[in-house]
Each structure stands twice: as C-alpha cells, then as structure tokens.
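User: Hi! I have a protein structure encoded as tokens and I'd like to know what sequence might fold into it. I'm fairly new to this, so please keep things simple.
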C-alpha cells in the first residue's frame, strides 16, 4: 500500500514500520549460531541488532513518552549494554520481544500529535516528530549493518 499521498504522520509511520520489519527479517532462515556470529570487534551481531532495536523502541516510545526510568522499564542503562546476548536469547525470543516493543510503541503514541512534546528525554522535551525521525535514522543505519552482516554470514556458508 502506497502512502505517498497520505498525511505526513502516516508516511513517517509507514517508513518506520518498513524498517522495523526489515530489521526483524534479517534473521530469517538463519541458525542460532549464525544470528549470534560476531564478525566485527564490537558486540554487533544480527541477533544483537534486533535486541538493541527493542531497547531503542523502549527508550524512545516509553522512557521519552512516560518519563519512566530505564530501571523501571527493565532495559539496560546504556545502548552498548543492549547488544549483550544472554543464554536464553534466541531468534524467536528476541523477535517476539521486538515485535511486542514495536506494538507498545505504536500504542504509546497513537493519541499524541507530531508536534506534541515528549517529556522524558535526557535532552529535555522533544516533539514526537523528532523522535520518529531519530528512530527512522537509527533503524536505517541498523538495517544497513544487518544487510552487511547477513551477506557476510551467508557468503561464508
């Protein structure tokens, strides 16, 4: 469905959702080992990227909207910590957590206008419009990371 002629909010939400789906889809057809494979010195793995994206959703659509602390939300203190994979993290569990976080994000802002200020960011109040654009930028970057990692993983098989 094309949103080219739809209101700006619908266009932004469609692009954000497209990138959310692309990142989740980067795990399609991989084994657990492949999804956890480290190909760069950082903690970045395909599974870690999706886990980090869950953190991103909760920072921008829970913490920023509600003002709740990261401890209250149950997420790591720093972005770097959000890439750490636990023994119980699987493709299925991480994707489910991400899907649930995305659904929660949609619900959290459904009655908030693009120009409404969200009070809970450390920088101070930010308009929802800026939050959407920041999340879109971050998801686009991570989709690029995922594309490269996935290509390297599949090429090695």
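Assistant: Happy to help. Inverse folding works backwards from shape to sequence: for each of the 157 positions I chose a residue that suits the local structure. Here it is:
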């Amino acid at each position: 469905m094309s949103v080219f002629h739809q209101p700006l909010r619908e266009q932004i939400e469609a692009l954000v959702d497209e990138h959310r789906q692309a990142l989740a889809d980067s795990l399609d057809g991989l084994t657990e080992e492949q999804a956890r494979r480290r190909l760069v010195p950082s903690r970045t793995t395909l599974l870690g990227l999706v886990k980090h994206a869950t953190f991103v959703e909760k920072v921008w659509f829970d913490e920023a909207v509600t003002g709740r602390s990261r401890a209250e939300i149950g997420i790591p203190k720093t972005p770097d910590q959000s890439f750490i994979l636990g023994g119980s993290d699987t493709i299925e569990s991480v994707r489910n957590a991400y899907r649930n976080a995305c659904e929660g994000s949609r619900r959290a802002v459904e009655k908030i206008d693009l120009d409404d200020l969200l009070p809970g960011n450390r920088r101070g109040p930010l308009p929802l419009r800026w939050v959407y654009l920041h999340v879109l930028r971050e998801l686009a970057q991570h989709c690029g990371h995922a594309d490269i990692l996935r290509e390297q993983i599949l090429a090695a098989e």
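A useful reference point when you look it over: The mean pLDDT is 96. Feel free to ask if any position seems puzzling.
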